Amino acid sequence: MEFLTGVKEKETKGIRELLEGDYEGKSVKINGAVHSIRDMGDVAFVILRKSEGLVQCVYEEGSSGFSIRSLKEESAVEVTGVVAKEKRAPWGFEIRLQEIRVLSEPAQVLPLAVNKWKMNTSLETKLALRPVSLRNVRERAKFKLQEGIVRGFREFLFSQGFTEIRTPKIVSRGAEGGANVFKLNYFNKKAELGQSPQFYKQTMVGVYDRVFEAAPVFRAEKHNTTRHLNEYISLDFEMGYIDGFEDVMAMETGFLQYTMELLNRDYKRELEILEVKLPKPERIPQVRFDRAKELVSEKYNRKIRNPFDLEPEEEALIGRYFQEEYDSDFVFVTHYPSKKRPFYAMDDPEDNRFTLSFDLLYKGLEITTGGQRIHEYEMILEKMARRNMDPEEIRDYLMIFQYGMPPHGGLGIGLERLTMKLLDEQNVRETTLFPRDVTRLEP
Fold first, then answer.
1. CA 38 to CA 194: how far, in whole Å?
2. Which of 82, 198, 243, 368 could form a disulfide with 96 if both were Cys (CB 3.0 to 4.6 A apart)?
3. Phi, psi torsion values for 366, nearest 5 degrees
4. What is the spatial distance between Cα 215 and Cα 170, in angstroms, rounded to a whole number?
């Protein structure tokens, strides 16, 4: 009888192990994909691609116990060689090859030059050939930074006493209402793909006080723009016992500060590859919705056409205004009109035409929507009545207020949009692993 007792230690080494250990002059084994081969006659450079980055291996005719002529790029290999210092190589070392074992070979020549620094191809081609294009060093770096954003979100909220939750994505009714939902036949019952975990995270505030989730949400919007997706990752949190919606904005500011420090510390290589200059969110200005519209109208001579919403051009001008006037890439726009916010948004007690809610704009693009929620049962029924909503349709949600809820609020952050603006990309699909939009369902 054999038993498994845990993770087996492998013979092969990773980049971190080679950097942290005393391996210079010693023979090691390392595996990876053959990213590129530069054959210079008697000497060839074989660059291996690993999850951590690229490793330079050196082949010398006569010294290495194999022929390099049949080695193909994108083959998966295991190599044996001696570690040597080399300042010009990635990581400051190289592997002087002794043996190579081919684990698998590509069946065809790659349709994209993924080993080039820039692939010089269209976004559509990159998306159509996604399993291949993601192997490019710069493409990989984008999503490592995205990993860092989610990691920062989790680590910071854990430090603030939040509990991570997982909520259903097949629901009976969308939290936001409206027609922009994907409808399902769920065992002969009507169902939808969740637009937001709003109802569930509010429910869980009554259980854990502070909760968060990083998960997909779905919007059946027919916008085919550079900023819209039909499935995206929403970084959501909800917090109870707040004094006002300013507590929610302060928590997001803390998350941004923590995450930028984390990226600067643990993702330096990716930042250098993509030439990213991180923002400094030490002090984020806030401005009322109506005042923001006035400011950009006055400074940029733009007529206010819609008093109840921000048009994309207005968002861009608000971002420009606060960059020019306050040297801030971020700005909280607060007190959105009640008619443009969901029924659960808390109205401003001083003027119920507006809500205690906000958007966070980053470089002129909305990346967050949040605010304080109604927590009193009678108050939420009154607001639903004013909107001609039927309480029976969401009786499970209303149950949480029947049995008592603390003052609370929260937000949702669009991960792909945040990444897009961080990297100064022009299309949100550039920062989405496998985008889903009105035209794309594959790969």
1. 50
2. 82
3. -70, 120
4. 13
Contact 100, 70 (CB under 8 A): no
Q: How far apart are CA 426 and CA 417, in angstroms?
A: 10
The tens-digit pLDDT sequence of the chain (443 residues) is 999 989 888 899 999 999 999 999 999 999 999 999 998 888 899 999 999 999 999 998 877 777 888 899 999 999 999 999 999 999 999 999 999 999 999 999 999 999 998 888 999 999 999 999 999 999 999 999 999 999 999 999 999 999 999 999 999 876 665 568 899 999 999 999 999 999 999 999 999 999 999 999 999 988 888 999 999 999 999 999 999 999 999 999 999 999 999 999 999 999 999 999 999 999 999 999 999 999 999 999 998 888 888 989 999 999 999 999 999 999 999 999 999 999 999 999 999 999 999 999 999 999 999 999 999 999 999 999 999 999 998 899 999 999 999 999 999 999 999 999 999 999 999 999 999 999 999 99
Q: Are 407 and 375 in contact (CB under 8 A)?
A: yes
CB atoms under 10 Å from CB of 327, counted, come to 10
Angle formed by the axes of helices 395-402 and 377-386, nearest 10°: 140
Output phi, psi for 368, to 5 deg: -145, 140
Contacts of 229 (CB under 8 A, 6+ apart): 219, 416, 428, 429, 432, 435, 436, 437
Q: Which residues contact 358 (CB under 8 A, 6 or more apart)?
A: 245, 248, 249, 286, 332, 333, 334, 335, 336, 368, 369, 370, 371
Q: Residue 243 CB: number of other CB atoms within 10 A?
A: 8
Task: Please give the span between the terminal C-alpha atoms of the chain, in angstroms, as a whole number.
Answer: 43
Distance of CA 187 to CAs 145, 181, 184, 259, 411, Å?
40, 18, 9, 43, 32
In whole angstroms, give the CA distance from residue 239 to residue 157: 10
Structure tokens at 366: 């909305």
Task: Give the residue from 311, 309, 312, 314 showing the smallest Cα distance to 341.
Answer: 309
Which residues lie closer than 8 Å to 275 by C-beta, 6 or more apart?
Answer: none
